[in-house]
Design brief:
By secondary structure, this protein is mainly alpha-helical. The chain has helices at 2-28, 35-43, 45-66, 68-79, 98-107, 109-124, 130-215. Helices cover 84% and strands 0% of the residues. Helix 1 (2-28) packs parallel to helix 3 (45-66) and helix 2 runs antiparallel to helix 3 (45-66).
Length: 216
């Protein structure tokens, strides 16, 4: 009986350690073997259980103090404890009959299987290796510099657009509108000169006719 309890306690601690390592790896990326726990296991089962439980408590305290997500989760749990505990049977009230409840469950049965399939597929996704994670983290400074370069290029392009718009406006005002005004002024001058020429020609013709009449 004692042996069975020891095996149960050891197996439970193994599961707790495994879950703790998964949580620690998910939060900080650390997945190193614990030498203290290994030495405690070698010394003996009873001593290993006590040491490992103490070690687990310290690791949990350290993880909660160093991880902002864990701190936020603990704070959220203390502020909203009802979200982390299932409601009792006496707290569930409904006006639907068993037939109506069964119809609702049957209509959503396919959604249950779909959700279970999605959760299973997520659980089967392997955790990336440390090399891959390190490589992705090392790319962050380069991505930040590339983002700064992109922002600088966007500002430069915007500046070029504004300068191009001003150049087009200046060209239109000076070349197109100014050229049109120049042509209009020249046309007015030509008309004035043409009127003067015609007036002079008319005067010359009248003088010539007057001279001919006087001679005759």
């Amino acid at each position: 009986m004692t042996r069975s309890l020891e095996n149960t306690a050891t197996g439970t601690i193994d599961l707790l350690e495994s879950r703790l390592k998964r949580v620690e790896y998910a939060l900080s990326g650390k997945n190193e073997p614990d030498e203290d726990l290994h030495r405690a296991t070698v010394k003996g089962k009873d001593h290993a259980v006590c040491t490992r439980l103490s070690r687990l408590e310290k690791e949990l305290g350290k993880l909660s103090s160093e991880s902002p997500p864990i701190q936020q989760l603990l704070k959220f749990s203390s502020n909203h404890p009802d979200l982390f505990h299932a409601a009792g049977q006496e707290g569930v009230t409904t006006s639907l009959s068993n037939t109506e409840l069964l119809a609702i469950i049957n209509s959503c049965a396919r959604d249950y299987y779909t959700a279970a399939s999605h959760l299973t597929s997520i659980n089967d996704i392997p955790i990336p290796s440390m090399d891959t994670s390190t490589a992705l983290i090392s790319l962050h400074p380069r991505l930040a510099r590339a983002e700064l370069v992109q922002e600088s290029q966007i500002k430069e392009v915007e500046n070029l657009r504004m300068r191009t718009a001003l150049a087009l406006q200046r060209w239109y005002e000076h070349e197109v509108l100014g050229g049109g005004e120049c042509w209009a002024e020249w046309e007015l001058r030509i008309l004035t000169v043409e009127k003067d020429v015609r007036r002079n020609e008319a005067l010359q013709e009248r003088d010539a006719k007057a001279n001919e009449a006087y001679d005759s």
